[in-house]
Design goal:
279 residues, mainly alpha, 2 strands
Length: 279
């Protein structure tokens, strides 16, 4: 009976894993098939070299969209990673067990906050505040801050989990040698956790690449290469979301190609972080 239960469990586990893999493969093949007409069109090369995105006129320059996407992802990661790492260190090493349990619950709830709620906060609070100093307020800075709000909770929880592996043994060794806690963190624990921590950042970057609505609400929706942190821009994902309902023909195929690029980038980041979080 036990062997049958084990067999059924393994069958279910492998079947579920295979199903998920097939779904991802089917989605990739579908997007690639829809993007193929644009790839075969003579307008294809300009998508990497031009900033003029006027599909109705046969111009498909997506350089501004690509730069805006990469810029906001970079900005969000630069803001989120230090704050998440510092928060995780405080949670693991400088907070009592009872307080840590409460704080961890709060952070976990925050990690599940819908992106539209964070976008509304950025639209109604952050953008007007920035506009008082750097009008019109919409732009790369606000979008990066909003994106970091979405990344910090999950990145903080992941970092805390990584730092907690074999923590008791390391702290006991450090205490027996009378090593100060900050030295234990910076010289014993942090160097050994560097690889899994960087992999967790890669996963967070993958999520940042896929974020759409919250960034769209505060970016300003102007197709251009942002010259500074206060200029409006538009991302690849936002363009797909805004234009796919009415896009036809080559325009529709070009949007699928943009989706294919985002898919490949997210997949590359996931592959970068595919190994287990082991020191």
């Amino acid at each position: 009976m036990r062997s049958l239960s084990t067999f059924l469990f393994n069958f279910w586990l492998r079947g579920t894993t295979l199903t998920v893999g097939l779904v991802v493969l089917v989605v990739f093949l579908f997007v690639a098939r829809e993007a193929l007409p644009f790839i075969q069109n003579e307008a294809f090369p300009q998508i990497f070299t031009s900033t003029k995105w006027y599909p109705s006129e046969g111009q498909f320059g997506a350089l501004g969209l690509a730069v805006g996407t990469l810029a906001v992802v970079f900005g969000g990661i630069v803001i989120a990673v230090p704050l998440a790492w510092l928060g995780a260190i405080a949670l693991v090493f400088y907070t009592s067990a009872r307080s840590a349990k409460v704080l961890r619950f709060i952070v976990e709830v925050a990690s599940g906050t819908p992106s539209v709620i964070v976008g509304l906060f950025g639209l109604t609070i952050l953008v007007p505040w920035v506009a008082l100093r750097f009008p019109p307020g919409y732009g790369l800075l606000c979008a990066s801050i909003v994106l970091s709000f979405l990344l910090i909770p999950s990145l903080m929880i992941n970092t805390a989990e990584i730092l907690s592996v074999d923590l008791k043994e390391t702290l006991d060794v450090g205490a027996s040698l009378r090593i100060p806690l900050h030295h234990i963190i910076t010289r014993l624990i942090w160097p050994t956790k560097r690889v899994p921590l960087l992999k967790s950042v890669a996963l967070a970057t993958g999520r940042a690449v896929g974020e759409t609505l919250a960034i769209l609400m505060v970016a300003g929706n102007v197709i251009q290469v942002p010259g500074n942190a206060f200029e409006s821009f538009r991302t690849v994902n936002a363009t797909i979301a805004l234009e796919i309902p009415y896009a036809l023909g080559l325009h529709r195929s070009s949007l699928f190609f943009l989706g294919l690029l985002a898919f490949v980038l997210a997949l590359a980041l996931c592959l970068l972080a595919r190994e287990e979080y082991a020191s």
